[in-house]
Amino acid sequence: MSHRTLPQPPRRTTRRTGAPSPATTAVASVPPAADQLLSAKEPPSADEPPSAGHPLPTDEPPSAAEPLSIWPGSAAPLGHDDLAVGGVPLTEVADRFGTPAYVLDEAEVRHRCRAYLRAFPGADVFYAAKAFLCRAMVHWVREEGLGLDVCSAGELELAVTSGFPPARIVLHGNAKSPADLRAALRLGVGRIVIDSTSEIARLAAAVPAGSRQKVLIRVVPGIAAGGHAKIRTGTDDQKFGLSLADGSAQHAITRILSQPRLELVGLHCHLGSQITTVKPYLSAVRRLIGLLARIHEQHGITLPELDLGGGHGVAYRPGEPTLDLATLGDRLRAELAGGCAAAGLPVPRLAIEPGRAIAGPAGVVLYRVLSVKRTGTHTFVAVDGGMSDNPRPALYGVRYAPRLIGRRTSAAPEPVTVVGRHCEAGDVLAADVRLPGDIRPGDLLAVPVAGAYHLSMASGYNLVGRPPVIAVAEGHARLLVRRESLADIQERDIGL
Asked: Regarding beta strands 191-194 and 213-220, do their DSSP bridges make them parallel or antiparallel, or are they unpaired?
């Protein structure tokens, strides 16, 4: 993994395309953060210069000179008291749409999609819908040339009814329901990933006579990788996939090959999430090539596809490591080519499934401060959202970097804990962060890297309603997903 930081270009005073809108003439436009996914040895294309957002990781602590390093590449300060994303002041978004609210930078999403296609030429890139999905996201991903990875009939139906071609969709899931499988077969998904032996006969029986369904088999390679124990999926002590070590994968492959309505086209594995080094992926490639060779020797077939999943790590706070995407692409292709040559196999078509690395850094969540409570040595800043719109700190101990916007202050920063409004002691959004010492009710906080696993994991706790999603692009803001209202909640309750 590279430990160099790309040179930071000066902020430009012209916007990427189009004329400045009246609302954003004071906003300094910066290139998209997605291009920082590229390594220093692979220069970006002429129309996509490097960005000030999401630099490559270094061994040095974060400095005050990079306060926007984890924000979308379009993020730019407006004076001393506001911040714009996508050319739209965040205070304007909060005033217009209320809080809490998710803000999604469309250009950042698109540029991150393109960065993946550049880093993995000739491979299939499937956006992992579980990170965040809505109709607009489906549209953006399709326009940028990516496929889609879904985990349920709900995600699948939303994608297909939004115009996404089902042949470019992969269906996952460790326990697919009969409804999931029926929807996949009815709509004609391109691939179904088999996750257990019990799924083989069930799926084969559901495939219409005279047709065949292309499938992959999810293999557990016995590799521990990921940012937290709860998001490591490459080892035998978790619920996903079939083990290489105990022979479950090989046994399932034999069973699949005996089903005339199933066509085994490749292997799949997913090591975990928030992986920031290349080494685990290279280890997985070596083990899966070994399995491909055994399949060829035992069954006389050559599988043409290899899906290595996603899990590519992003930084949630300045100075945290990220996965060097260009290095990953280069070394994966080299490892795959060398390993297959040594095994006497053709190189399979590679597929990857990024989710967080595309959606996460493109999102910002806005909160309004409701109260400030000083108890002993602790200061608690309570906001109008919490674990119902972001359960990740409670689940995985994730740490964020909130920022005060909308008010000028000269107060020195002090350590505080940002908490939510829910009746739960574990409802903590950002522990031990530094915010201005005069923070008070009514202040606006913005939290970056909020585009993945926020709305998709949001709950109905305390019946507060899920926040809206607002897209920003070229100085304009538009509603993608409306706020869940009390009427929405009540309509689901049919009464006594």
From this structure: parallel
Whether 151 sits among the annotated catalytic residues: the reply is: no
pLDDT for the residue numbered 238: 57
pTM, rounded to two decimals: 0.85
Sequence-distant (6+) residues with CB within 8 A of 279 are none
Task: Round to whole Å and give the CA distance between 162 and 168.
Answer: 13
Asked if residue 402 lies in contact with residue 445, where contact means CB atoms within 8 angstroms, the answer is yes
* Angle, CA of 401, 407 and 411, to the nearest 5°: 75
Structural tokens at position 80: 């001393």
**Hey, how many other C-beta atoms are within 10 angstroms of the C-beta on 401?**
22
Query: Which contiguous run of DSSP H or E holds residue 124?
Result: strand 124-128
- pLDDT tens-digit map of 9-34: 233 333 333 333 333 333 333 333 43
Q: Which of 113, 134, 151, 423 is catalytic?
A: 423
Helix, strand, coil share (%) of the chain residues, nearest 5: 30, 25, 45
Q: Where are the alpha helices (DSSP H) in 207-324?
A: 248-257, 279-299
Residue 433's DSSP bridge partners are 416
Residue 473 parent element (H or E): strand 469-473
